[in-house]
Design a protein that fits this description.
The protein is built from 28 helices and 19 strands. The protein is an alpha/beta fold. It has an 8-stranded mixed sheet, with helices on both faces. Strands 1-2-3-4-6-9 form a 6-stranded mixed sheet, with helices on both faces. Helix 5 runs antiparallel to helix 9, helix 8 packs antiparallel against helix 9 and helix 19 crosses helix 24. The longest helix is centred in the C-terminal third of the chain and has 21 residues. The chain starts with a strand and ends in a 6-residue tail after the last helix. The protein binds 1,4-dihydronicotinamide adenine dinucleotide.
């Protein structure tokens, strides 16, 4: 049973006990109801306290039950809350640490609530595309007032218990307990044991001085912010019902809205992303209890674009960093950029000056490898050139202490070859950060053939410490993200040859929700980067057809924003992409040289060719074991490539479209003589799943 029952004098204490956060799974719900029945039947019991064991009152629904019939099997949460309300003896919820979602809804079903200070209170359902579904939208406005409640429900953000207890007129917490919460709750229970009638939140009135105007204001505000997500506006509708309807009728509205949202693609996408994020940490042959190495000091080689950003991650986590370069000027430049980034944060009020000083004090620089010998991990971010990497890793092998982790930030090179430059390949791993490295959430952790399990576990833990979403990738050209983006870029190039303009392609993708279309992205990242990679890549794969348009662009010196000219024109110092006549002429000429007559291409074709190129390559990546699971690919694209969250990632989007349909479209693309027919042969995994009517998830 995941809820304990004990008698403390004349008070029955029901303690939720379902680690880690007392999720309200079926066993826990059953435990609460049975505890309540026991307490009703026992004449010696005068009052009941419900609390949570360990590190939470309750984190809400048990995510392990998501999507299973157990989630709603009786007693479901509504039944449990009803049982609380029907109790003939007063119930006090003793709230601490975490009280979220269903946990808060349960507390609101109790007659009284006391809390310890610092408890995080929230209704976070909106974050997974839902509204609270067990009365949260009806009871929270009754205890906090419509405005405070709506803020919490629409944002899903946690608020500290003591702050809520200070809200004027609030009825959420009757008491903030100092010291021992259970002792305080028992004392409070004794105080109110004989008070009748028992107060119920449902009986309170929801009022507002100007309800219609306020709700209209809320609709406008939330509608403007919610963009691609339906749930926030439904939160507003549910809360509006609390103003206009009787409690039980409004509960029906909440239920209907909740159920309708459950089946929206946006909700599925958000729940998928929520679960996918958790799944990334699970590595089948590296169990959670794998011992990790102690990492206190970090070294970074190279103070360029990536080295500086990488260093900031560790400084932000209060870890000392030593940065090495070839020349003092490069170090000075790198350090100045780091300082400038922190100063910008201070200016915006996001960082205190003393924090800036403390962080800069933890950063040291050197030109001498001997100064790295104490580092527990070294991350190399020098030029993307195997010869340079070879020199660096051979030197690191000589100077680093035994057991130090040697990591490379290479974006395309073979980590196994890099490991082979050392006599300790077990200690070598790839840590592929994304630019800007101090901002982007994604960290691809590249597991070499010989990488030791504890090294992998250590780097995953380190990534978590610096607040990255870590996704494990095997070794291949481009790893997960960039290997897929190559196909995406190839398709984008073919689309230009066949008749699109860069702006048309970008617009279609941005309408779908991508943060940026492929050409604006190229201009931001620097078209020269891809040019450099293509020169190597297509030398290795001479038969692979690709559009030369991007090379022609680079031959014109149009590297993107940094040269104020790329696929678009840019005014000096500005980032607005202005369609370029030079580029259109260049594409037209190239098309004419190839003897291609431009045709009109629909946004739908653009979207499907680009996204399904990711999907087909993604399927190969899963099949080859480069990615551990399809959902890891989605996390890579959601956190590193600006893929829209409401689509759940490319693989999730393919599931939404239906793999059968995806394969059918690929077969059609394969017949286009100007495209790469061979590429569009569905990956075996994709073909199999489609034939069996299954999905990636
Ligand atoms: P960068 O050119 O901005 O910086 C490289 C720095 O390394 C330069 O300051 C250079 O002086 C220094 N350096 C070169 N050889 C060195 C050596 N032997 N010893 C010490 N320092 C040396 O390059 P960036 O963009 O920072 O790239 C670094 C690495 O990160 C490359 O492997 C790149 O592929 C990878 N990467 C780059 C991304 C990007 O968006 N720029 C994204 C992800 C990975």
């Amino acid at each position: 049973m995941s809820a304990n029952y004990e008698l403390r004098g004349s008070v029955a204490v029901i303690t939720l006990n379902n680690p880690p956060v007392n999720g309200l799974g079926h066993e826990t719900r059953k435990g609460i109801v049975e505890g309540l029945e026991k307490a009703q039947a026992d004449a010696a019991v005068k009052a009941i306290v419900i609390t949570g064991a360990g590190k939470a009152f309750s984190g809400g629904a048990d995510i392990r039950e998501f999507g299973s019939p157990m989630a709603t099997s009786e007693p479901n949460l509504l039944t449990v809350i009803r049982a609380c309300e029907l109790s003939t003896k007063p119930i006090v919820a003793a709230v601490h640490t975490v009280c979220m979602g269903g946990g808060l809804e349960l507390a609101l079903g109790c007659h009284y609530r006391v809390a310890s200070a610092g408890a995080l209170v929230a209704l976070p359902e909106v974050k997974i595309g839902l509204i609270p579904g067990a009365g949260g939208t009806q009871r929270l406005p009754r205890v906090l007032g419509i405005e405070n409640a709506l803020n919490m429900i629409v944002s899903g953000a946690p608020v500290k218990s003591e702050l809520l207890a200070m809200a004027p007129g609030q009825k959420l917490f009757q008491k903030i307990v100092e010291g021992d919460l259970l002792a305080g709750a028992l004392a409070y229970a004794a105080e109110i044991a004989d008070v009748r009638p028992l107060p119920l939140v449902r009986d309170l009135k929801v009022t507002h001085a100007n309800p219609d105007a306020f709700m209209q204001f809320a609709r406008n505000m939330v509608g403007g912010m919610a963009k691609n997500f339906p749930a926030p506006l439904k939160c507003v509708e549910a809360v509006a019902a609390s103003l206009k309807m009787k409690f039980d009728d409004a509960m029906k509205v909440e239920r209907e809205l909740f159920t309708a949202l459950m089946f929206t693609p946006e909700c599925k996408a958000l729940r998928h992303a929520f679960m996918a994020e958790r799944a990334t940490t699970k590595i089948p042959d590296v169990p959670a209890d794998t011992p990790v190495r102690d990492i206190r000091r970090v070294a970074v080689i190279g103070a360029g674009t990536m080295g500086g950003g990488i260093a900031m991650n560790f400084l932000n986590a209060d870890m000392p960093v030593v940065m090495l370069e070839m020349k003092q000027e490069a170090l000075d430049k790198g350090v100045a950029i780091i300082r400038k980034n922190y100063e910008a944060q201070v200016k915006k009020g996001k960082l205190k000056q003393d924090k800036l000083d403390a962080r800069m004090a933890m950063l040291t620089t050197t030109l001498n490898y001997a100064d790295l010998k104490d580092a527990d991990v070294v991350i190399e971010a020098v030029f993307e050139d195997m010869g340079v990497k070879e020199t660096v890793f051979k030197t690191l092998d000589e100077v680093m202490k035994p057991g130090a982790i040697l990591a490379s930030n290479t974006s395309t090179l073979d980590v196994d070859r890099i490991a082979a430059f050392t006599k300790r390949p077990q200690d070598v791993i790839g840590t592929h950060f994304f630019s800007p490295a101090n901002v982007m959430k994604l960290l691809e952790v590249v597991r070499g053939a010989k990488t030791a399990k504890d090294v992998l576990a250590t780097v995953m833990a380190l990534g978590k410490k610096i607040k990255k979403t870590c996704v494990v990738s095997g070794v291949c050209d481009g790893f997960i993200g960039n290997r897929m983006i190559e196909q995406y870029s190839r398709q984008a190039g073919f689309l230009l040859e066949e008749g699109c303009t860069p702006a048309q392609v970008d617009k279609a993708m941005e309408k779908f929700g991508m943060a940026m279309g492929p050409f604006r992205m190229g201009d931001l990242a620097g078209n020269d980067v891809g040019w450099y990679i293509r020169k190597r890549r297509y030398l290795e794969k001479p038969n692979l057809r690709y559009s030369k348009t991007a090379d022609l662009l680079c031959e014109l010196g149009r590297f993107g924003q940094k040269t104020s000219a790329g696929w678009y024109d840019y005014l000096p110092g500005k980032r607005d992409a202005i369609p370029s006549k030079i580029v259109t002429d260049m594409i037209d000429k190239h098309r004419a040289d190839l003897g291609i007559t431009a045709r009109k291409i629909t946004d739908e074709e653009i979207l499907h060719r680009l996204v399904f190129s990711l999907v087909n390559e993604g399927a190969k990546i899963v099949e080859e074991g480069i990615a551990l699971r399809a959902s890891d690919i989605d996390m890579v694209y959601l956190t590193g490539y600006g893929f829209p969250l409401h689509r759940g990632g490319p693989m999730c989007y393919a599931d939404t479209v239906g793999l059968f349909n995806v394969v059918a479209m690929m077969k059609r693309f394969a017949t286009n003589p100007l495209d790469d027919g061979a590429f569009w042969q569905p990956a075996p995994l994709l073909a199999r799943l489609a034939a069996e009517g299954r999905s990636f998830s």
